[in-house]
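REQUEST FORM: STRUCTURE PREDICTION
Request ID: SP-0412
Submitted by: Lab K.M.
Chain count: 1
Length (residues): 52
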Amino acid sequence: MIVPDTLQGAVVLSVIDFALSIVMIAGIGVVLALLPLLNRIGRLDDDNLRNH
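STATUS: Completed
RESULT:
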């Protein structure tokens, strides 16, 4: 799909860019929300580390 070099084409590209930025921000939010879960799953116990 070729977007014409007109005002309408610029608006179309702006809308696409806005939608993709929302998707990227939501994706980053999901990754950041999962980090505490990964921290709980991979928790290292200091006593286990010292005794082994």
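NOTES: Residues 37 and 43 are 10 Å apart (CA to CA).
Reviewed by: T.R.
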